[in-house]
Amino acid sequence: MVKSILEGKTVVLGVSGGIASYKAVDLASKLTQEGATVKVVMTANATKFVGSITFQAVTHQPVLTNLFEDSFQSAISHVSICKDADIFIVAPATANIIAKAAHGLADDALSTTLLTASCTIVMVPAMNSQMWLNKATQHNLNVLKNRGIQIIEPEVGRLACGDEQAKGRFPETEFILNYIKGFLGKAQSLRGKTILITAGGTREPIDSVRFIGNRSSGKMGYAIAEAAKTKGANVILISGPTNLQPPFGVSVVYVETAQQMLQAVINNLSQADAVVMTAAVSDFRPAMKSNKKIKKESMPSSIELELNPDILEAISNKKDKQLVIGFAAETDNVLENATKKLKKKKLDLMVANNVSYPDFGFDSDFILAAFISDYGQQGSLEKYRKTELAEKVVEWIASKLA
Ligand SMILES: Cc1cc2nc3c(=O)[nH]c(=O)nc-3n(C[C@H](O)[C@H](O)[C@H](O)COP(=O)(O)O)c2cc1C
Asked: Does 119 participate in catalysis according to the annotation?
């Protein structure tokens, strides 16, 4: 018999108080039958629709419904329940739990447990179509999406309230089951692989307080680090100065200058299966650097510059098995220039991005990008959320390393 991807996995199932709560029993049962350990957390209102004993019976696990009683009477608590979780799915998710999660409220077992989760969270909203369409609900869903929480949209169909063909229906168990399996399958796709990522801009000192540098928030590289980590990779993130918190479980090497970044890349190159260069490396640096702050009165009339090493080219010359992916920020002839760089630097993939518009690139969450691979083949420039582009880059790497 074929082994299910669910075998050995831990799924936390949050159940809130909607009419579809009873359907979550079927989901809990099927997940358990396919080998997952299913830990259920219910809101008090969910227990009015279906008893916790039902979930306990189908999952063979204690169920958390009351923060103050269950934690002491059983082996689970809001803190321990998520510890080994591979995924946390809230199904059904009421308008109420969506609103509470969006605001970080923690006033019952489910909302409190959601705040302790470090795994991927997926919400499956189901409700009356007016509740779904309400601006407050839509706003809260956007808040959650921007935070990286995945939302399985409800289906259009007959609702319990009697509405025909309205949006708000809980999807079929098989659909949710396949979604979870798809996620867990992808999560395995980079297991055992090491991905080296550079992010942020470099700073090239003029003196001990001033520098020239490139604009870069580091968001793109950090998003790729997070996406690769989620798929099970060992991730080494070589980061210039940013304001970002590195993703959990990623090894970070902090650098400032292009030369330090080159050294850090070379030090880690041999263990990498793929290298993704998103960093905005300064092409040049001041030829002379003062170790002390240059006084205003001694201001030089000009600063002589010299070329920095080209890190991408250095990798191409040193690499053996590694896939090398570059990012080219361009303002003119974006695709042509990026294609030239791809060829010159013998890259496997180039992500060309147009940084001419203030809404894209640098500090934005969005990027206008195109993939150029296989030595010249071009895609077209499209708007991506950086987290979405990160997923695509990482999926591409996983498909090449498979
Ligand atoms: C019969 C009945 C069915 C309900 N179905 C839903 C539903 O499908 N989705 C929803 O968001 N709220 C539904 N509600 C409203 C929620 O139960 C209510 O907002 C509650 O406060 C949710 O609590 P919880 O999120 O803590 O479980 C329903 C209420 C009743 C009485």
From this structure: no
